[in-house]
Amino acid sequence: MLNLNIAYVMEELIGDAGLSEKEIEQFKETLQNAYQELHQRRWQELAFLDLPEQNVEPVIKIAEEIRLNAESFLVLGIGGSALGPRAILEALSPHHNLHKSPRIFIYDNVDPITLNSIMSVVDLKKTYINVITKSGSTAET
């Protein structure tokens, strides 16, 4: 459940720059409608909102299997499907491939030269491949 504390935007606390109760009341219906729409869409394209409550044990089990058995881990994704994994990898382990296993490769375009360079250094029999696609219909993935 999401709780929103708006006390520090109210004029009672911060003065004239803050919002009044009247202004909040004016937006109440709009906010309620937005919440209802979000809730209705949740089961379709917004299922990620439920991630904090989901059982992650199966994911942890697969991750451990990959850590123990893989020499390489290849992520296939275009746009945001590659940017998220790349950002996490660079933030948490910027030089990962120099000193950790499995080596992680993110292939995020249809350039055959890049793909060939990755394929030349991985053993596919010891590589796990993770295909990420939001729509499932992106031609590249």
| CATH fold description of the largest domain | Rossmann fold
Helix-strand makeup class: mainly alpha
> Strand arrangement, largest sheet?
2-1-3
The beta-strand count equals 3
Q: Label the CATH architecture of the largest domain.
A: 3-Layer(aba) Sandwich
Q: What is the helix content?
A: 40-55%
Number of helices: 6
Secondary-structure blueprint:
Elements: H1 11-14, H2 21-41, H3 57-69, E1 72-76, H4 80-92, H5 96-99, E2 103-107, H6 112-119, E3 127-131
Parallel strand pairs: 1-2, 1-3
How would you characterize the overall build of this protein?
It is a single chain. The chain is 45% helix and 11% strand. The chain has 141 residues and is mainly alpha-helical. The chain has 2 domains: 7-51, no CATH class; 56-131, Glucose-6-phosphate isomerase like protein, domain 1 (Rossmann fold). The radius of gyration is 22 Å and the shape is elongated. The mean pLDDT is 87.
Quick rundown:
This protein is mainly alpha-helical. It is elongated and about 65 Å long.
Task: Give structural attributes.
141 residues; mainly alpha; 6 helices; 45% helix
